Amino acid sequence: MGTDRDRLVIPEADPVREYSIEEQRQLTENLLVLLKGVAAGEYSDARISPDLVASMHRALFTGVRDHAGKVRGPAFGSEVLRFGPHYSLHRKEVPAKLRTTCEEAERMVRSVEENPEAPEYERSAIQIAVWGHAKIIRIHPFEDGNGRTSRALMSMILVRVGLRPIPAEFPRQEYYAALNHYFETDELEPLTNLFIGVYPTI
Predict the structure, then answer these.
(1) What is the pLDDT of residues 31-46, one digit of tens each?
(2) How many domains does the chain have?
(3) Residue 4, domain member (yes or no)
(4) Cβ–Cβ under 8 Å, residues 154 and 120
(5) pLDDT band at residue 166, thresholds of 50, 70 and 90?
(6) SS in 3 state form for the chain?
(7) How far apart are CA 85 and CA 147, in angstroms?
(8) Is 52 inside any structural domain?
(9) Half-sphere exposure of residue 62: CA atoms within 13 angstroms, side-chain side
(10) Which of 49, 140, 147, 189 qualifies as a FRET site for 183, CA 20 to 30 Å off?
(11) Residue 47 maps to which CATH number?
(12) Which one, of 78, 94, 74, lies nearest residue 136 by Cα?
């Protein structure tokens, strides 16, 4: 007898996640604009919230897909998404989990902001940024673009606390291996260490 997950419709080769050359060009252009805005502090006054995350996704997918900025929920989106060997949360769980994740990230960022002279200030900020990034990917709140959106959020957190954004270039295979390690074990240290290793000031 199969599980409930076995009976779910899980998209594999879904047109929502396949892009024409023109759509890829638009996505790249949108991403550059988003990251420039993040680096310039355009998002730094905002509280970390589902609305903020959705606004970043909207900036990325505007003109590309009509799901731009739309969070999966009981009335919208795939029931479950597969990414590599992993599965997202069921769509009915997404809104509440995204909200609590954002609330926890906001609390952690405020705690770091209150102690700017702490010896581990930069490391703590990177740990929080990586935590938020990984948590949001695990949730997979959007039909597509979860990695790009959550990496933009990671940079936004760092810029907000007075640090530089995460470099655009980092070792992708090591990144995916560390992310998969987190999904399988809940251990974030390899992913955190990877970003600390490529961060320009540590």
Answers:
(1) 999 999 999 999 999 9
(2) 1
(3) no
(4) no
(5) confident
(6) CCCHHHHCCCCCCCHHHCCCHHHHHHHHHHHHHHHHHHHCCCCCCCCCCHHHHHHHHHHHHCCCCCCCCCCCECCECCCCCEECCEECCCHHHHHHHHHHHHHHHHHHHHHHHCCCCCCCHHHHHHHHHHHHHHHHHHHCCCCCCHHHHHHHHHHHHHHHCCCCCCCCCCCHHHHHHHHHHHHHHCCCHHHHHHHHHHCCCC
(7) 15
(8) yes
(9) 10
(10) 49
(11) 1.10.3290.10
(12) 94
Query: Model pTM?
Result: 0.88
Cα distance between residue 141 and residue 89, in whole Å: 8
- Residue 18 burial (C-beta neighbours within 10 Å; 0-12, 13-18, 19+): exposed
Distance (Å) of CA 111 to CA 25, 52, 104, 116, 186: 39, 19, 11, 10, 23
Residue with tokens 């998404």: 81
Looking at the chain, the whole-number percentage of residues with pLDDT higher than 70 is 90
Q: Whole-angstrom Cα distance, residue 5 to residue 8? A: 5
Asked whether residue 2 is domain-assigned, the answer is: no
